[in-house]
Amino acid sequence: MNRYNIWKNVKEWLLVLVSFTLVSFFLYQPFKIPSGSMIPTLFIGDFLIVNKYCYGYSNDSFRIGTFTFPIPKIVGRLFSDELPQRGDVVVFRNENDKNQNYIKRIIGEPGDTIELKDGVVYINGVATKLEEDGEFSNIERGELVIYKKFIEELPNGYKHVIIKKYPFGEGMLDNVGPFSVPSNHYFMMGDNRDNSQDSRVVEAVGCIPLDRIMGRAEGIFFSSSCEFYEVLKWPFSMRFERFFTAIR
Fold first, then answer.
1. How many beta carbons lie within 10 A of that of residue 196, not counting itself?
2. Which burial class, exposed, middle or buried, applies to 138 when counting CB atoms under 10 A from its CB (0-12, 13-18, 19+)?
3. What is the rounded distance in angstroms from the CA atom of residue 14 to the CA atom of residue 219?
4. For the segment 134-180, what is each residue's pLDDT rounded down to a tens digit?
5. Would you put residue 203 in left (φ > 0), alpha (ψ -120 to 50) or beta?
6. Are strands 208-209 and 46-51 parallel, antiparallel or unpaired?
7. How far apart are CA 193 and CA 55, in angstroms?
8. Is 104 a catalytic residue?
9. What residue spans define the domains of the chain?
10. Which of 192, 138, 187, 186 is nearest to 161 (CA)?
11. H/E element holding 63?
12. In angstroms, how far is the first alpha carbon of the chain from the final one?
């Protein structure tokens, strides 16, 4: 291969790398689910596309992994067309946990009062509607765990699935609050209600400022139950039914 062909190949790869970086920086960024706090909506090993421009840009929008690019301080959000809505699944930076990226569902908006009584979420004094939806089974540490599944309806009519491992009132975070959501903050919760460190744990997460939200999770493009380096397990670990599915 002559020098011209080598340089041509290098330029092509550089173009791909620059294009991917720009898309991840400004538009859509891939994100891997590291924990089970959003089961059954999201599984460990799901790879998501996060929409980074829907809420406009803050400094935390420009993160790749846990690295935030050193750009001048942004006041508010740039080019913001809409605000996060109750029910949205969002990725945000949790500065209380070594600046890790978290993914949760927005339950409370600025000005809301959130309280949990026997596992039921009360928003501004009104209980969310819950409808039984059968059971959900999952293999955890080699054992089969059976959860009760429910459809939760938020005040804006948004419906999503939650699961409970323990009966209502017996979970560690089933009776907490009330929490007052400050201006420009949001109250986050995981759909796996008995296995989620979220805004109910004030000292670890608390209410999340708008500026810490990186973007909205839109869809799953790949899903596997094994680690990337476990090549021999690839053919048996793919969850094809989750490929290219929207997140609700």
1. 24
2. middle
3. 27
4. 999 988 877 899 999 999 999 999 999 999 999 999 999 999 989 99
5. alpha
6. unpaired
7. 26
8. yes
9. 3-246
10. 192
11. strand 63-64
12. 50
Q: Tens of pLDDT along 93-139?
A: 998 888 889 999 999 999 999 999 999 999 999 999 999 999 999 88
Tell which residue, 152, 155, 136, has the closest CA to residue 144.
Answer: 136
DSSP 37: T
* Backbone φ, ψ for residue 93 (5° rounding): -90, 125
Q: Is 67 exposed, middle or buried (0-12, 13-18, 19+ CB in 10 A)?
A: exposed
Give the residue ranges of DSSP H helices in 33-133.
none
Q: Which fold has domain 3-246?
A: Umud Fragment, subunit A (2.10.109)
Instruction: Decide if 37 is catalytic.
Output: yes
202 contacts: CB under 8 Å, gap ≥ 6: 179
Minimal CA–CA distance to 92: which of 1, 217, 4?
217
The Cα–Cα gap between 37 and 191 comes to 7
Which member of 52, 58, 61, 104 is catalytic? 104
CB contact at 8 A, 226 and 44: no
The phi-psi region of residue 214 (left if phi > 0; otherwise alpha if psi is between -120 and 50; otherwise beta) is alpha
85: which 2 tokens? 């809505």
